[in-house]
Amino acid sequence: MSFVIDQVRGRRVWDSRGRPTVEAEVQLRGGPTGRAIAPAGASRGRHEAIDLRDGGEAFGGFDVTHAVAHVNGEIARALAGLRADDQAGVDAALIALDGTAQKARLGGNATIAVSMAVLHAAAAAAGMPLYAWCAQDAPVRLPLPEIQIFGGGAHAGRRVDIQDFMVMAVGATSFAQALDHTAEVYRAAGALMAESGKAAGVADEGGFWPVFDSNEEALGLLVRAIERAGFVPGDDVAISLDIAASEFGRDGRYTLGLEQRVLDTDAMIDLLVGWCRRYPIASIEDPLAEDDPVGLQRFTAAVGHRVQVIGDDYLVTSADRVRGAARDRAVNAVLVKPNQAGTVTETLAACRAGQAAGFGTIVSARSGETEDTTIVHLATGWDAGQLKVGAFARSERMAKWNEALRVEASLGARAVFAGRGVLPPDAGRPLP
Ligand code: PGA
Ligand code: ZN
Predict the structure, then answer these.
(1) Structural domain boundaries, residue 393
(2) Closest ligand to residue 287's CA
(3) Nearest CA to ligand 1 atom 2
(4) For ligand 1, is residue 244 a contact (CB within 6 Å)?
């Protein structure tokens, strides 16, 4: 079987927000093909790979004709003749061709679509499922899912400040059971929203659109939803938050629009530590802004023994930044988003840097998604331990959850589920 790349094609397709995005298709000599689609973020870290957009009038400036043209032109020429089973070599060629620190010239959306399509083509040529190709001979594990119940921040017109109110089914013993438990909580949350007259549709990642009067009201309702679904908060199902604090904080000032308050770093930490005492919170992402490393260090020192503290905007899926954060103890977990890095190889390096540091590693989708399920295979094949995809609604999210179910089923009795062991001890049990 030949792994030699014959053709690379790009095309414009559409994402879950109805915006253009880049799809790449890679054909190897002898026929095997791979295909992948770039996702897109709305609350982006300053240092992540550039999502190249045309600007101008069409589609609100979000068109990707330049990025697609790069795939069909320079990238196709540079990759022809390279081997798809040498992912590192292919990605090094993409990085060299782009020549900028943040993939600004070719576009991170062009490079990640191509890089992931090469991965798919190689797996097809090897006759292996993608997760198995990613693992090679290493053990694989189904990830613990982190699933959104309420969406806020940049994904819901800033109706509440906090971006994601999620649950983790920490009592589940299989991926399928984790989805069963989450489905009951999602349904219970919907019923509680309807009863309280606060149901107002869904946010960008499929979570309920939160018509709340305070950020804390959402936490209270989430605990009631877990209980109404028949679970013990913290033992069976725990809460996970993405504060996405870079969206409303800078220079050590955090503006909570909903509550009309401005907090300094210490007050922001006090607020979140208070929540960790009162609610069964197992994980908090981006608790402070990307420009507040000292705040992150203080917060992690305060709660990191019991709560997973994830760096997203702060780490932007960069192995170097992960190693720096490990030295500084700024966080204890890393969000792994392929399009923040721009290639599969750099994404893997960030994941491995996290694992080497003893960090939690959470492979993550973006708020703008499609039917592409590559991240499910990365999370499983790289043994990341956790997967964050958005809510338990809308097919660009369900495509991922359903794909993980298929992977678990195909492994049969050999399937291993990550479960609560990937979190700090006693995560989800309220801080004393
Ligand atoms: P984004 O946000 O995909 O809109 O950037 C997701 C996140 O902050 O985790
Ligand atoms: Zn985030």
Answers:
(1) 144-422
(2) 2
(3) 43
(4) yes
